[in-house]
Specification:
Layout: E1 10-14, H1 26-33, E2 41-44, H2 55-70, E3 79-87, H3 88-96, H4 99-116, H5 121-127, H6 130-144, H7 153-157, H8 161-187, E4 217-223, H9 224-232, H10 246-257, H11 259-262, H12 290-299, E5 313-317, E6 332-336, H13 337-346
Antiparallel strand pairs: 1-3, 2-4, 3-4, 5-6
Helix pairs in contact: 4-6, 4-8
């Protein structure tokens, strides 16, 4: 069976309501899938189209924003998505910007392309979502009318090769400055890196942007037939016939199992406030920093230091706080709930 590389530089968003599809409690759901090691995954390159050429694609932009900010897993009924992995930079962009700001950034990029590349205007007129096209024309009327690059087409025709190259270079940077100036005036900041140039689209893997002018992200899901095998019939199916990402599945189960404690659907924030407060004395403990938790998690490879389990992990003080132990990297380890209880019982 194929062992895939871990997912890196991504936020894993968890669907915390998927158990309801099977009409089960969260705990009952986990019991049924606890032996599943491999699951269907795939790169989705078409969920959120960049050009926004239709009302459907505009709706997908809103869905994506809802997914990142509110954990709304609205993927239709053909399969049941339980988690998605979104590149960090794309996640941060959608997390830090209101939907209206993202719409403006995309619209201004398209406006610059429409204005600086006249040969493409007919395509824009025929394909773009009509309200978007109207907004583009307003931007051009407000900010671009009257702008001319340093060298006209007639100027370029009369230049020698070296002068021609310099003129093209100067024209490009003049257009770039104009585009950034308009962005700064309109929404107060430069565009994200993949929208940084007028009329050109940057394919950037760290944003999950690909050659199809779409965003891409990894999604993991049960198809209808997989759901039947794993959930309803209670049979164990290792899904060897499917694409699989074991680390993705493990991350999802860890986060899903702690949802009642965490109330968070983002795996990237898994390390904060891991355990509920059980008595007032816990408040007096030295708080473990997120950075220390990350270091301990990496050192212990995300598994129990005693038995190797990846289920219900807790941060344990090797020398208990009551015995003078500190919340430092050297004095912390990952233990599963069972091993941690045994240790404290022995103490």
């Amino acid at each position: 069976m194929i062992k895939y590389e871990p997912i890196e530089d991504c936020k894993v968003l968890v669907n915390t309501e998927i158990h309801k599809k099977a009409k089960l409690s969260r705990q009952a759901f986990l019991e049924k899938v606890k032996n599943v090691k491999y699951i269907r995954t795939g790169i989705n390159r078409h969920y959120i189209s960049f050009y926004i050429t239709s009302i459907e694609e505009y709706g997908n932009l809103k869905k994506f924003h809802e997914l990142v900010n509110n954990g709304v897993f609205d993927f239709g009924n053909s399969y049941h998505v339980f988690a998605v992995a979104i590149p960090d930079k794309l996640y941060e962009w959608f997390k830090s910007q209101r939907l209206g700001a993202i719409e403006r950034q995309i619209t201004h990029w398209l406006a610059s392309s429409y204005f600086f590349e006249p040969e493409r205007r007919e395509i824009f007129e025929n394909q773009l979502f009509r309200p978007l096209l109207e907004e583009i024309k307003k931007i051009i009327k407000t900010h671009y009318v009257g702008y001319k690059p340093p060298f006209s087409e007639d100027d370029l025709d009369n230049l020698e090769e070296k002068q021609y190259e310099d003129a093209i270079f100067n024209n490009y940077h003049s257009k770039l400055r104009k585009y950034h100036e308009v962005c700064q005036i309109s929404y107060g900041t430069k565009p994200p890196a993949f929208l940084n140039t007028p009329g050109q689209y940057e394919y950037m893997s760290e944003y999950g942007v690909n050659a199809y002018h779409d965003f891409e992200f990894l999604e993991a899901y049960f198809t209808e037939s997989d759901w039947e095998n794993i959930i309803i019939k209670e049979s164990i199916d290792d899904l060897g016939r499917s694409e699989s990402r074991e680390d993705f599945w493990i991350n999802w189960k860890n986060t899903f199992s702690l949802y009642d404690i965490k109330k968070s659907f983002v795996y990237g924030y898994y390390f904060e406030d891991l355990s509920p407060i059980k008595n007032p004395q816990i408040n007096k403990r030295e708080r473990i920093s997120k950075g220390t938790m990350n270091e301990v998690w990496r050192r212990d490879e995300g598994k129990c230091a005693e038995c190797g389990s990846r289920e219900k992990l807790e941060f344990d003080h090797i020398i208990p706080v009551s015995k003078g132990g500190s919340s430092t990297y050297r004095n912390l380890q990952l233990l599963c709930e069972s091993c941690n209880r045994k240790k404290h019982g022995n103490i």
